Amino acid sequence: xxxxxxxxxxxxxxxxxxxxxxxxxxxxxxxxxxxxxxxxxxxxxxxxxxxxxxxxxxxxxxxxxxxxxxxxxxxxxxxxxxxxxxxxxxxxxxxxxxxxxxxxxxxxxxxxxxxxxxxxxxxxxxxxxxxxxxxxxxxxxxxxxxxxxxxxxxxxxxxxxxxxxxxxxxxxxxxxxxxxxxxxxxxxxxxxxxxxxxxxxxxxxxxxxxxxxxxxxxxxxxxxxxxxxxxxxxxxxxxxxxxxxxxxxxxxxxxxxxxxxxxxxxxxxxxxxxxxxxxxxxxxxxxxxxxxxxxxxxxxxxxxxxxxxxxxxxxxxxxxxxxxxxxxxxxxxxxxxxxxxxxxxxxxxxxxxxxxxxxxxxxxxxxxxxxxxxxxxxxxxxxxxxxxxxxxxxxxxxxxxxxxxxxxxxxxxxxxxxxxxxxxxxxxxxxxxxxxxxxxxxxxxxxxxxxxxxxxxxxxxxxxxxxxxxxxxxxxxxxxxxxxxxxxxxxxxxxxxxxxxxxxxxxxxxxxxxxxxxxxxxxxxxxxxxxxxxxxxxxxxxxxxxxxxxxxxxxxxxxxxxxxxxxxxxxxxxxxxxxxxxxxxxxxxxxxxxxxxxxxxxxxxxxxxxxxxxxxxxxxxxxxxxxxxxxxxxxxxxxxxxxxxxxxxxxxxxxxxxxxxxxxxxxxxxxxxxxxxxxxxxxxxxxxxxxxxxxxxxxxxxxxxxxxxxxxxxxxxxxxxxxxxxxxxxxxxxxxxxxxxxxxxxxxxxxxxxxxxxxxxxxxxxxxxxxxxxxxxxxxxxxxxxxxxxxxxxxxxxxxxxxxxxxxxxxxxxxxxxxxxxxxxxxxxxxxxxxxxxxxxxxxxxxxxxxxxxxxxxxxxxxxxxxxxxxxxxxxxxxxxxxxxxxxxxxxxxxxxxxxxxxxxxxxxxxxxxxxxxxxxxxxxxxxxxxxxxxxxxxxxxxxxxxxxxxxxxxxxxxxxxxxxxxxxxxxxxxxxxxxxxxxxxxxxxxxxxx
Amino acid sequence: xxxxxxxxxxxxxxxxxxxxxxxxxxxxxxxxxxxxxxxxxxxxxxxxxxxxxxxxxxxxxxxxxxxxxxxxxxxxxxxxxxxxxxxxxxxxxxxxxxxxxxxxxxxxxxxxxxxxxxxxxxxxxxxxxxxxxxxxxxxxxxxxxxxxxxxxxxxxxxxxxxxxxxxxxxxxxxxxxxxxxxxxxxxxxxxxxxxxxxxxxxxxxxxxxxxxxxxxxxxxxxxxxxxxxxxxxxxxxxxxxxxxxxxxxxxxxxxxxxxxxxxxxxxxxxxxxxxxxxxxxxxxxxxxxxxxxxxxxxxxxxxxxxxxxxxxxxxxxxxxxxxxxxxxxxxxxxxxxxxxxxxxxxxxxxxxxxxxxxxxxxxxxxxxxxxxxxxxxxxxxxxxxxxxxxxxxxxxxxxxxxxxxxxxxxxxxxxxxxxxxxxxxxxxxxxxxxxxxxxxxxxxxxxxxxxxxxxxxxxxxxxxxxxxxxxxxxxxxxxxx
Lengths: 995, 481
Hints:
The structure holds two protein chains of two kinds.
Chain A: H1 3-13, E1 17-19, E2 24-32, H2 39-47, E3 55-61, H3 67-73, E4 79-83, H4 89-99, E5 103-105, H5 130-134, E6 142-149, E7 152-154, H6 158-168, E8 172-181, E9 188-190, E10 194-195, E11 201-202, E12 230-232, H7 233-239, H8 251-261, E13 265-276, H9 294-309, H10 315-335, H11 339-354, H12 356-369, H13 374-379, H14 384-404, H15 409-445, E14 455-457, H16 468-476, H17 493-501, H18 508-517, H19 519-530, H20 537-548, H21 551-559, H22 562-581, H23 594-610, H24 612-629, H25 632-648, H26 652-658, H27 681-685, H28 701-709, H29 717-739, E15 740-744, E16 747-751, H30 756-773, H31 781-805, E17 811-813, H32 820-825, E18 833-839, E19 845-850, H33 866-880, H34 887-891, E20 894-900, H35 905-912, E21 917-923, E22 926-931, H36 937-947, H37 951-973
Parallel strand pairs in A: 1-5, 2-3, 2-6, 3-4, 8-13, 18-20
Antiparallel strand pairs in A: 6-12, 7-13, 8-9, 8-12, 10-11, 14-17, 15-16, 18-19, 20-22, 21-22
Chain B: H1 2-26, E1 30-31, E2 42-44, E3 47-52, E4 61-69, E5 80-86, E6 88-93, E7 99-102, E8 110-116, E9 122-130, E10 137-142, E11 149-153, E12 164-168, E13 175-183, E14 186-188, E15 196-198, E16 203-207, H2 208-211, E17 219-226, E18 230-239, E19 242-250, E20 256-264, E21 271-276, E22 282-290, E23 293-296, E24 303-305, E25 310-314, H3 316-319, E26 324-343, E27 349-354, E28 363-370, E29 374-394, E30 403-404, E31 411-414, E32 418-424, E33 431-451, E34 457-461, E35 463-464, E36 468-470, E37 474-476
Antiparallel strand pairs in B: 2-36, 3-8, 4-7, 4-9, 5-6, 5-8, 9-10, 11-17, 12-16, 12-18, 13-14, 13-15, 13-17, 18-19, 20-26, 21-25, 21-26, 22-23, 22-24, 22-26, 26-27, 28-33, 28-35, 29-30, 29-31, 29-32, 29-33, 33-34
């Protein structure tokens, strides 16, 4: 029907009606648009009303289904007005209102007359008093408009309760019901609406809140939704109804806000209920009036509302805030892989900001409404706490989106609750049986390392700096004051440590301590979680316990090997994900998608940052499986997993790859003392990595025995054999690490690697094999207990050994490691260096250069190439062979030479005969010499810096690409959310109300 | 499926066993070849400092300090210096092949300092001759590199012995040394043997009869707290009024389980082996490589050496007057030295001390040989036949050419297990040096004995003049040590 046709039809139907003075006259305007699905229930609701509206005008905005027919057949619909399809909600209401008749008070008009009379004054063109204007004149008949949607089902007493509220609160001009779910009828969807500074729609309830009467006391609100809104007709007409600039969304709130500003009262009546399907917002129908996506249209409307109601002096600031918020949300939505939503959001805000004329028009109407009630309106805006709660809800939904899957309905919710209860029970058992014992053992064994003077250091661990900022500074520096100066790319694990330090009040020291000293606890947690669905019950607990207390993990805590600890923590989830990605897990675990591959790749990145050999071993194994199984997608995903560390960790990864022997080492300091005594292959077989803090050799052998016995069980033999294959691969790598003396880039001395991280992999494989293949189900109870006891034997013995011996070389000490008077001198850029010479067990001599405050974590990973130190190496060698003097020390601004006589007596005596050295002191077995004719430090380092390449400029493109690779990986790994059906309010904080 | 998975399991386990086997048989510390990144282990000697002991300033005693630069060694050039200093600069050798000597040197300790291209091939010796009745005899010792840990075995403080420990500091910094004295009954409680200060370029003496009176044989352990020293014992023996010889006992680097003591001269006289086990008691086996072949200790499966006690073993009988080198093999690290005395009948006797030496690696030399004395080289091959060449280097500061000894070209073959004596014909210069180069074979030991016309003798093992110095492998470390 065209507009002209509609107008003529309306003209023939419009007439005044007669009403008793002091009563309410309610005109319901039901707006329909392709609502065939919902209309039957909506009309049924109207039919069941205890108090019916005085008239029901239905406005159909060009429905293409049977909506008009349903409306016309309904006996409760007084009239049906058909409008064009692009009519907005406000326009449709206006059309219906024009068709509705006006009330005539029986005491003031001749009931036989059909003449139109002013319903307020009875005098056409007369001037009304303010009281008359607000309709609170005692005894006056009040005419109400009741706005209804075609997807709204009203409860039988809805109108009765709202009118009772109107009687109780004579000054209320806008009254809204409590909105509940369409299908889930106990779910509260809305109880009054408001708007946050960011444009987020606040619906007065938390997500998923159930109706338990908790909202019954609510009354005053900033606004109510258009669905079920009861508004005085006088007010509607005075304010001009909904703003035409808002065709579909936020029009109700904007209207209520204007009403509030004009001094009117808006209340919600929680006792009055409607059920709302939110069909348009959820995308169940298209909306011609708002051709954009619903969320985008809502976001645009929200921005326009905020701009329209902002004080004049703050409009620009408000616009900037909206834009910034949109950008942040864009990043957030990108992370949850709703990238189109991110763009829509940004586009909507930009669209609102560019609609200057529309905003100006809206602001004019706001000004007309006045600002009598502006203060009250401001108090009804949501608090910052409420906004934070919404964000928390959104985050919770992201995290829980995948686990909830597609299940819906009461039955699945009940299942979910039961599953949750079961998980909580299991978690308690796990905490008591595994976490607590491991935690106690860790705290006992490391009791002296947590607090006290100095910092945690020793073994492979250099002292951590104070704060996150210091870690960032170490990472971002292009030139490092290490050795004679280094331009080697910083190790990226510093960033991961910095991230871990943030929740610990930014304390990098505490982050390192927690990670290292409580590493076994974290390993227990990750292993337990990763065995989900693979091993059940007590074997799962025993497996987690055994994994947490592997010999290599204990030795790593004792020698400060952060790489091994990181592997112990990250390995279980990494292997689980790679088993899925490579299709190794078959149907045992959920099949993988690209998100799984992204997650696995992220874990590989983290592991590579700490221990490249293990990362490559696992990824290579997964790729091999995918190739054998000939799954094209699996191979592609595994390639992503394998190559991701190289891209994300650029340029450090390039440094590692171009020095391939580094692929045998984990991060941290490397020293012959850390691999002495080296393990024999048989000891490796028993999971003993060797080194000064390794537990007795054969404690891990019990696991190997159980894993061999696990091969007897036919049903799980394939999985156990695969674990054994994995074990053998790791054993080969560990053997190579411990046997080979390989060249390293930072020294002319060959080094062997400590195979701690690799033996963690071996231990994990054995534990998995033993746990999966443990034939507990068909064993007699006595034998079952025996097997479990044997399984517990290894961790119990290791825990006892560790707790009693505390096997470690860690300590809390002075980071500088030099005499106090030297440390006092080593301040400032021109501070001299100190050389500390030590003798190694194999006859080699090593030295350290200390400058500034001494070594820091990460310094060992940016050690300069051996060529930089070659002259110093030769100089020291000649000096110790009686072939040279100390001139070379003076040239490098080395003012002091320190030797621990107890460790290297011959070296100390030889030093006495070196021309240019003068012994200063011998205190506590440490001899100190001073070098004559020392060159100024500034002169010495200037040449180093000048000769160093410009790494920042050279690495900048690589770093930028690495950042993009990381972002891409994070997006790939993040769970994908459904925008409409599952989480209508999640995709944008603008929220949304729908017709 | 079960059969296949079982087979897979067996294969996997077999693979694991293979990995363990490979790891076991590969052994530890398998170095991956890496070309340039291997640390240099040796280079040409660029600096050399030798200390020559003070042998006492007495009337009637003549001393000489000689030094030579053995020519024809890698790394040599005139770009360097070789100075012999004793209180003041004594002489300078300006070219490889040069050699010089100072006669009638005072009793100050002497030092030899060589740098640059003159450092490789430096050899030096201090020789003394005493014609007096008391202290009569000739003595010589090579000048040596200073060290922080030295052992000396021999000498004593029994009646008639006036032995002196001489510490020399050829460096430019102070040295402080401790001396521990051991006798047949173990550690001797001494006073005044700790904290002996030796100034730069100075010497310090310790009268052994004062610190360990009436102890017949001694082992001395010299360690420094600060700096480096050289050490030697001036062994001076009298039997009543009859002189029993004088000799300078050189220091020993440290105890070992196997070594060879070359230079036991032929002739009559007492031959005695001293043994000392500083760490723990052990059993020692002794055999001698003589000019007639290898001889062992008869009816003695092994000699028991107690902890910290000096043991004497007579060798006179088994050597039967033949030139020899003595091999000592022990189950614990021990020290050993051999004394050989010449019987001069009524005129008394003189003696020679031999201490463990290392087999000839390339070239060795003996400096300070007097033309007026007879010189015999004693070459011993312990591990198969060995071939060597012998040359004489006449003394000339401006340099001289090596003159081969014997024909053809001074070459000589030493049969396995034998000691060969070679008479060296002296050149016309008053002092000369002998250079021995190993041409073939392993385990070649060289020593010399000089005797004057009166039958007094002295000798010591040839000094290795390898132009190479072993540098310790050095590298930076970035941990906490």
